[in-house]
Every structure is written in C-alpha cells, then in structure tokens.
Write a structure and sequence with these properties.
Layout lengths: L4 H33 L12 H23 L8 H8 L3 H19 L5 H20 L2 H17 L6 H21 L11
Helix pairs in contact: 2-3, 2-4, 2-5, 4-5, 4-6
C-alpha cells in the first residue's frame, strides 16, 4: 500500500463509521414512521416493466459481447484488464450506455413478474458475470448485482441468514481474486 497505507486505512475506517452511523439513524427514523405512513400492500403486483428490464439485460449483454468481439476479438473475453480497457476505449461512450442498460435492466427484471423471462435474464446476467469478473470488471458487475438485491428485497424477496452469509463469504473471496486475476487475465493463470 505504500507509505500512506496506514493513513488511507484510517480515513476509510472513519468514512465507513460515518456511513454506518448515518444509515442506522436514517433507518431507525424511517422504520418507525414508514410502518405507519406507508404500510406494505400485499395486493400490489410486481413491477410492470419487468419484461422491458429483461430485454434490456439481453440487449446489453449482446451489445457488450459484440463490442468486445469487434474491438479485441475472442481474446477480449479472457485477456487482462489493461488489454480490455485499451481495446474498448474507442467505444467508451457506447459502453457507458451498455452498462447503464445492464444495471437498469437487471433491477427492473428482478422486480418483475415471476417466470421464465425473469429467470432467463438473471441467469444470463450470472453467466456474463462469470465472463466479466475474471477480466476485472468488478464495478460493472457488482454494483448492478447489489442494486438488484436491494430492489428484490424491497419487493419481498428475503435471503435466509445462511444464504446471506454465503453471499458475503463469496463476495469476500471474489473481490481480491478479481484484483489478482485482472492483471494477467485468465490466459495468465497457468503462469501463476
């Protein structure tokens, strides 16, 4: 971490503590008022734009795959992060729209009606994550994943404590693994 590692750790700890304190205060004040002013409606149906979200997910994945193939060929799917970034730079503005469509689409999809379309969109997003995470695209995958989990929880999905712990453990394993793999990509794993 260099000579400023300890200072960075202290600043990060202070920021985390401030965030946690604020979240606890806001949650405490909102939960006491929310149950009285905005009771959950069991008759409220799923989000009406779920199929649109699924279409956005499929379209964004197809656009991402097409852009990677056009800019760097098949090696773009298993190369290093630096190679991916330099190849995809020429399509930077377009890729911003792709990531926006993917993130918004997965959130709308998980809040939609249960069925094969939503399940297919979630499975396609998971398969894309298996390809994109080893490249080093942590933020592009993890932020939409967390947003989708929050939206799903808001719609009534709940994770059991065991599944939540398993998800947290997987996340704690994936983050440093992706950081290590992104310098060489999947093609550099035999050398490690």
């Amino acid at each position: 971490l260099g000579p400023f590692g300890a200072d960075a750790a202290v600043v990060a700890l202070i920021g985390f503590t401030a965030f946690a304190s604020g979240a606890i205060l806001i949650n405490a004040s909102a939960s006491s008022a929310d149950s009285r002013t905005n009771p959950p409606d069991p008759n409220e149906g799923p989000h009406p734009f779920g199929p649109v979200g699924s279409a956005l997910v499929f379209g964004a994945i197809a656009a991402w795959c097409g852009t990677v193939l056009v800019t760097s060929g098949a090696s773009g799917f298993y190369g290093a992060y630096g190679d991916y970034r330099s190849a995809i730079d020429e399509a930077g503005g377009f890729m911003a729209l792709v990531w926006l469509a993917l993130g918004g689409g997965i959130v709308m999809s998980v809040t939609g009606r249960h069925g094969w379309l939503r399940t297919s969109a979630i499975a396609a997003f998971g398969c894309m994550a298996l390809i994109a995470l080893p490249i080093g695209l942590r933020g592009e995958i993890m932020f939409p994943t967390i947003a989708a989990l929050v939206a799903a929880a808001r719609c009534g999905w709940t994770l059991s404590p065991g599944r939540a712990c398993a998800f947290l453990i997987a996340l704690l394993i994936v983050i440093p693994s992706v950081r290590e793999i992104r310098s060489t990509g999947l093609k550099g794993l035999p050398d490690v």
